[in-house]
Specification:
globular; 22% helix; alpha+beta; 145 residues
Length: 145
């Protein structure tokens, strides 16, 4: 596939009837859910799962989400969600990009960008990233981002 950045973390899904809305195609919110699943799976692959977040009393919270819906998908379609970490300031901020593509044609269906701020879980307030976040996430920032 012609991904915008090299070496995306990939999540493969198959469109089910439950993903379809009243217009007969994948509901826009479903793309967001697939992106969330890909983001958590990617973080877990880097050693940063929910248990680690809880132990460190920190999390990366989405403060802005942008999505562009380009083309529809339908029941039975095989979909590939690609995600990358694209920016981190090693203090508070991080970004993650997404592309959702049709599995067989490679056609771009949706693309998105999330902006995060590191928060302390017990207060919900912004808090400097712990060193563990920097060590896990910084090496995963996509080249060319």
């Amino acid at each position: 596939m012609d991904w915008k950045l090299p070496e995306p973390y990939l999540l493969n899904v198959v469109v089910r009837e439950t993903h379809i809305d009243g217009l007969g195609h994948v509901n826009n919110t479903q793309y967001i859910q697939w992106c969330e699943q890909a983001a958590w799976a990617h973080s877990a692959s880097l050693g940063m799962d929910l248990d680690v977040y809880k132990t460190l009393d920190r999390a990366m919270a989405v403060v802005r989400a942008e999505f562009d819906y380009v083309q529809a998908a339908y029941t039975g379609d095989e979909i590939v969600v690609g995600t990358w970490l694209t920016f981190m300031d090693n203090k508070l901020n991080m970004e993650r990009a997404f592309e959702v593509r049709h599995g067989s044609s490679g056609a771009l269906l949706c693309q998105g960008l999330w902006r995060f701020v590191c928060i302390r879980l017990t207060t919900g307030k912004p808090s400097r990233m712990p060193q563990e976040f920097i060590e896990a996430y910084e090496p995963a920032i996509a080249s060319g981002a």
